[in-house]
Amino acid sequence: MTTEVLHYAAFTTAEGGGNPAGVVLDATGLDDATMLTIAQDVGYSETAFLSVGATDEGTTRADVRYFSPVAEVAFCGHATVATAVAFAERHGPGRLALSTAAGDVAVSTRSEAGRLVATVSSPPTHTRPVDPDVLTGALAALCWTAADLDPVHPPHVAFAGNYHLVLGVRSRETLAALAYDFTALEALMAREGWTTAHLFWAEDEVTFHVRNPFPPGGVVEDPATGAAAAAFGGYLRDLHLVSTPTRVTIHQGHDMGRPSELLVDVTADDPSVAVTGRAAAIPA
Asked: InterPro entries, from UniProt (predicted)?
C-alpha cells in the first residue's frame, strides 16, 4: 500500500514563504520506523501523521504524531496548521480534537477572504529562567555576548508542548546577522532538552521578529515555529510583558527568504495559547 504524503507550507505570507511540512492524513497502521522513513524522505523539519477517529457534534477526534528526519517530536505547531488546512480542504472547515504526545490540542479551521485559516490551542504553557551557566554556554554557541541581550525580556526556557530557549536581543541587526555554532548549540540543546531556540527582537510590545535554530531536528533554522510561538506567548503573559487579552504578531523566516507570519492570542485565564496562521499546498 502506498502512503499519500501531502506537502504544505504553514504560516505563509507569500508564495515561497512559510514553513514546509509533510502531511499524512491517513496514518492508520504505520509503525514508528515507517513514519520516520517517510519523514526522512520528505526532508522537511516535520511531517505529521494523522489517524482519524470519530466525528461528534462537529468535532473530529484524531491521533497525530510528528517526526523530524531525525526523531519523533512531541508537538509541532506548523505541521498542525498544515494538517488542519489539508483536512479542511477535503472535509470542510470545522474543529479537530487532536491527541498528541504532548497532550490534547484543539484546532479550528475557517475561511477568511477566501483562504483557509487554522487556529491551534497549545498545551498549557509555563516558563522558567535559564540557569546562568547554561546561558553562558548558549551565548557562546550563538556567538553573542550578554551585552547583546534585551534587558526588558529576561532569558527563559518556555514550554508549550516542547521546551524552547527564549532569548531577546537589543537590535534587529544582531538578529539578522545570526551565524551560530551548529555543533555546539546542538550538544547544548540535547543536554537541556530544548527543541528550538526562540531568538527575537521586539519591534514594539506586540510585534516581534524571530529566528529559530532547530539543531535537534537536523535543521539549521525553522522559518515558522508554531510551538515556539505558543511558548513565547505564555512567556510574555507569565512575565507580565504584555497586557491581556492581546494579539501578538510574530514575523519569522524573513532572514532566510521564507517570510512567515504567526498570530498569537494571549489571555489571562487560559493556560493555553492560541496560534493562528494560513497554509497552502506546495506545488509539485
From this structure: Phenazine_PhzF-like
